[in-house]
Structure formats: structure tokens, C-alpha cells
Amino acid sequence: QVPSAPSQPLGSSESRRFTNKHSKKALKASLTLGILLGMFFVAWLPFFVTNVAQAVCGCVPAGFFDVLTWLGYCNSTMNPIIYPLFMRDFKRAMGRLVPCCRRPAGPRPSAVTLSLRNSPSGPRSAPAPLRNGP
Predict the structure, then answer these.
(1) Residue 31 in contact with residue 85, Cβ under 8 Å?
(2) How far, CA to CA in Å, does 41 sit from each of 27, 44, 61, 78?
(3) Where are the alpha helices (DSSP H) in 1-134?
(4) What would the pLDDT profile of 68-112 be if each residue is shown by its tens digit?
(5) What's the rounded mean pLDDT across residues 111-127?
(6) Where is this chain compositionally biased, Polar residues type (predicted)?
(7) Angle at CA of residue 81, ends 66 and 32, nearest 5°
């Protein structure tokens, strides 16, 4: 008789969790890339097609060409909005570079800590001394 192998190796739930975590990340990255590329093509493809048509036949009205140009500019304006919405790493990098987007480095206080800090019986820190002069 051949000994039967265990049906599931040890740690299979961990490997499944690892696989699910990475597949979710891959799905989110694919979704973000799809949205960005889709918006790029919707905004810039008409501009490029019209640009080629203008070079070949010169039959594109100037106002229509301007509208398509501004549609592409609007797409470029949307990219800094889309990236932080979908990409946590981009948001962190922007937080490091742009001072107004920075969060405090320490851990966020819990509701209990906030309630103790704001209650009359809770611990209080000494007020900072007032400074006179520059």
C-alpha cells in the first residue's frame, strides 16, 4: 500500500490568504491602469485623429480642434486626482513631498484617549508657557 499524502499541506490557508491578497492588489492595479488608459484614449484619440485629418485635408474647423485640445488638457488635469484615489503608495509619496498633505507621524489617538484628554477628570498636560518677544 502507498501511504496517502495529506489532502492539504500545512499552511495552505496562509498561502491562500497570501494569494488572495496579491490577487486583490493585482486586480486593483489593473482597474487603475484600465481607468487611466481608458480616460487617456477617450480624451486624446479624437484629438490625434482630427490632427491627422487636418494635415491631410484641412477640413477641420478651428473651434472643433480647440475643443478637442481642451478635452485632452482636462484629461491631464484629472490624472493628479485619479492617482491618489486609487493608489495608496502615490498618496504616501505626495504626503512626503507636499507639506499641506502631510499627516502627523505618530499613531492616531483612539476614542478613549480623546475622551480622557477632553474630560475634566482625565490627565492633563501642563500648559505651555507664554513667550514674550520674537
Answers:
(1) no
(2) 21, 5, 22, 13
(3) 12-57, 62-86, 88-97, 111-118
(4) 999 999 988 888 787 777 777 877 887 788 777 666 555 665 555
(5) 57
(6) 112-122
(7) 100
- In Å, how far are 27, 96, 118 from 104, measured between CA atoms? 31, 11, 20
Read off the amino acid at residue 38. Answer: G
d(Cα 47, Cα 124) in Å, to the nearest integer? Answer: 63
> Looking at this protein, which amino acid is placed at residue 25?
K
Amino acid at 45: L
Domain ranges of the chain: 18-95
pTM of the model: 0.50
Q: What mean pLDDT, rounded, does the chain reach?
A: 75
pLDDT value of position 26: 84
